[in-house]
Amino acid sequence: MNLHRIVSKKQLAPNIHSIEVEFNPRVAAKIRPGQFVMIRIDEQGERIPLTPVSVNKDGGSLTFIFQEVGRTTRRLGMLKEGDSISDVVGPLGTPSEIRRYGTVAVVGGGIGTACVYPEARALKEAGNAIISIIGARSGELLILEEEMKSVSDRFYVTTDDGTKGRRGFVTDMLREVVEAGEKLDLAIAVGPAVMMKSVSDLTRRYGIKTLVSLNPIMVDGTGMCGSCRVIVGGETKFACVDGPTFDAHLVDFDHLLSRLKMYAEEERLALRLLEQGC
What we know:
- Helix 3 links the parallel strand 9 and strand 10 (129-136).
- The protein has helices at residues 25-28, 71-78, 112-125, 145-150, 170-179, 193-206, 239-242, 253-260, 264-275, and strands at residues 4-13, 16-22, 36-40, 48-50, 54-56, 61-67, 84-85, 87-92, 103-109, 129-136, 154-159, 166-167, 186-190, 210-213, 229-232, 235-238, 245-247.
- It is globular.
- The chain starts with a strand and ends with a helix.
- 40% of the residues are buried.
- It folds into 2 domains: 4-92, Beta Barrel (Elongation Factor Tu (Ef-tu), domain 3); 103-260, Nucleotide-binding domain of ferredoxin-NADP reductase (FNR) module (Rossmann fold), CATH 3.40.50.80.
- By secondary structure, it is of the alpha/beta class.
- The strands form 4 sheets. Strands 12-11-10-9-13-14-17 form a 7-stranded mixed beta sheet, with helices on both faces. The protein has a 5-stranded antiparallel beta sheet with strand order 5-6-2-1-7.
- It has 9 helices and 17 strands.
- Helix 2 packs parallel to helix 9 and helix 5 runs parallel beside helix 6 (193-206).
């Protein structure tokens, strides 16, 4: 069995962790922004997709940020430095198109900031002007502030409760930027599906090309199971192979939101059994 040792682990916020995991350096070198890997803690565990926040190609490791929301992420949060993960498979998914667009608004909501950061960094290196907006429910749940600020020409923070930055949602700040006369050549949003839908609704009104990274239920990550199907432009797509990045204005977000709720009760039961020691 090919085990991937946890090199380091940090708690970034309540129930939000960063872990660095050993990974084949030759494979790590092939990972591009927008791609993900599937991890499985052990032979009895489910597979879950995670986006590498950073890749150590020389030392052979990947760093992930995740939030404990279900049984598997709770179990992942219980692991310590020196523990091992059974499987880390990737890179999977279609890489994002990194080129010079001009001025790009990068919007991260909650844990979605961990997914959008590698793209913001790559787009900055490609010569784009980056306007970053990140948000969370409260200040204690914000992540990667300094990292996002370091790759941004302008940087804004919002929180739902006003405990840090501007009180309100990321869409409020994005609207202010656009209505102030800023010409955006591209917007990228990653976060909860309802947040990405709100960004898409806003940018559609202003004719701003917008990309989102979708987060449907995923099982194998290779297009075989079909569980990650989404509707884009009226056609069925698989987020794992056709995405996860799609044109936001073509995504059927109502369908996505409906599918995300399909196994909510089963997920609650699985977490409850774990808490009971089962």
